[in-house]
Amino acid sequence: MHPLPRPSRIVRLVPFPALGIAVSLLLTTSCLAESPTSAASADEGTRVRARGHSIVVAPPDLSIVDLAVASEAPEAAAAAQINAEQMHAVLDALDKAFADVAEVETSGYTLSPRYDFQKGTGRVLTGFTARSALRVKSRDVEAAGRIIDVAVGAGADEVRSVRFGLQDDTQQREQALAQATRQARRRAEVMAEAIGLRVRRVVDVDEIGSGAAPVFAQSRALSVQADASPTPIEAAGVEVRADVSIEVEAVP
User: Fold this and answer.
1) Which of 12, 45, 69, 235 is exposed most, by the fewest CB atoms within 10 A?
2) What is the pLDDT of residue 18?
3) What SS3 class is residue 160?
4) Residue 242: which pLDDT band, with cuts at 50, 70 and 90?
5) Exposed/middle/buried for residue 57 (C-beta within 10 Å: 0-12, 13-18, 19+)
6) How far apart are CA 130 and CA 72, in angstroms?
7) Confidence band of 230 (pLDDT split at 50, 70, 90)
8) Which residues contact 154 (CB under 8 A, 6 or more apart)?
9) CA distances for 233 relative to 121, 212, 214, 230, 243, angstroms
């Protein structure tokens, strides 16, 4: 008997055009899935940033006078002793005259040698200087001149600074912040309108800085004069500043 022939294998080939259709469908489906993201990006507006600045001027209700008492002597101990006596005299005088409106406190102390430079011999020690600093805070701003006069009359010989400020600047700070924020918003609107857009929403707003800037009177050294006229000190307005940045989203 002759063996029966084996059945031949049937191989089915996928035509190339059919494969192309499948790839095409896959790509089309992928593109359709990404369409919402593209639409969301197109819907996002233009960001516009602007800044606002404001100054609110308020009358001061606080004066701060920085004074010093300097004493010289050949020896360090003597300079320190003289300075202590002069300092006590100044503090007592200020306490008696302004106890109801002012606070007096010491703010520094130094004791240093004094030298004289001579040709041929170089540096020569000539003595010592003791210096005590004090600060007077007064709720009566018109008393600044009188504070200087009383201190100088009792032995103070330096006026380091006279400045004016506010005991509490919360109200002025909030007013300045509100004005600066409105200005920043308006500037952003103007820029958006200039390019044919309108503000849809505020994205971000930040306080760049705010606070009261103390007003300084000119500092000077004083010499004690019995017949000296009263020291004129005029208080100027205190400026409370605020700066704000804003970012908005603008759309057609």
Assistant:
1) 12
2) 43
3) strand
4) very high
5) exposed
6) 6
7) confident
8) 89, 90, 92, 93, 94
9) 47, 20, 15, 9, 31
Judged by average pLDDT, the poorest of 17-21, 43-47, 148-152, 211-215 is 17-21
Which residue is listed with tokens 């103007």? 190
What residue ranges define each of the domains in the chain, with the CATH number in brackets? 46-57+171-211+243-251 (3.30.110.170), 62-165 (3.30.70.2970)
**Residue range 227-232: mean pLDDT, rounded:** 67
| 91 closest CA partner among 158, 147, 163 | 147
DSSP result, 48-104: EEEEEEEEEEE---EEEEEEEEEEEESSHHHHHHHHHHHHHHHHHHHHHHHTTTEEE
Predicted TM-score (pTM) above 0.70: no
Tokens of 112: 């240093």
- DSSP secondary structure code for residue 143 in this structure: G
Record the tokens describing residue 109, joined without a space: 């102390």
pLDDT tens per residue, range 37-88:
333 344 688 999 999 999 999 999 999 999 999 999 999 999 999 999 999 9
**Paired residues of 51 in beta bridges:** 245
**Per-residue three-class SS string for 172-226:** HHHHHHHHHHHHHHHHHHHHHHHCCCEEEEEEEEEEEEEEEECEEECCEECCCCC
